[in-house]
Amino acid sequence: MTAGPHVTEAAGVTTHGEAAAPAETRAGYDVDAGIAALWQQFADNPDQASRDRLVLHYAPLVKYVAGRVGTGLPTHIDVGDLVQSGIFGLVDAIEKFDPERGLRFETYAMQRIRGAILDDLRSQDWVPRAVRSKAKEAERAMERLGARLHRTPTDAELAAELGIGLDDLRDFYGQLQLTSVVALEDLVAAGKDSGSLVDTLPDDDAVDPVAVLVDQDNRRQLAQAIAQLTERDKIVVSLYYFESLTLAEIGKVLGVTESRVSQLHTRAVMRLRAKLVEQTGT
């Protein structure tokens, strides 16, 4: 009786003398075969479901390209926004990719993704290209002069380096102001270890805890002062300030004239003021 094939677990080798493919390699073959089948399915029937599966598979490319493009950009530009723009480039690459040209899809897609991100950044830039070009030229001139002079160059020196007059340079500064836009968050945090815009802008609707405590203390003192009034004075104060009755209406409740209520009210206020002054010790 012949023995069946014996498979050793170590190194994945069979006793037939054939080396078994490592698990990682087999998995790689499975992935490649699955993507190839998905591309063929999309080519035969370019439906939404197939395209979405391809987008999901190649989405890490977008994150990679966005991270590369985002390096060196101003801090107020969110890499998440770059990724969102890059997704449109990926979708466009999938829809326009032609395998017959022999180009790897990853290479083709990265170009399209980068182009989509840059196009979106340009569309958000309100500064003319000529001004941007002048700004870069001025920056390079400043660097050259700084390296030669070992100090910050003067306006006259910079103008001479750029080959323009001093008045032209000052007009040039006015144009360059358009390029000097920074995030408000960066200005707030300048010179500080940390800082947030939320910490600096007042919220008109926010409750001031100090004001709340002061109000609570005032109410407590007022309640204590009212408790020491005579019964009639308490009624006048309660109806006038808490029930919002007029002096005439209070007179009807108490059965006295309006002028008498006015006198009672004045007396009650004077007594309250005296009690409050006594409580605060002022």
From TrEMBL:
Residues 1-21 are annotated as: Disordered. GO terms for biological process: DNA-templated transcription initiation. The keyword Transcription applies. Residues 81-94, 246-272 form the RNA polymerase sigma-70 domain. Keywords: DNA-binding, Sigma factor, Transcription, Transcription regulation. It holds the Pfam family Sigma70_r4. This is RNA polymerase sigma factor. It comes from Amycolatopsis rifamycinica. The lineage of its organism: Bacteria, Bacillati, Actinomycetota, Actinomycetes, Pseudonocardiales.
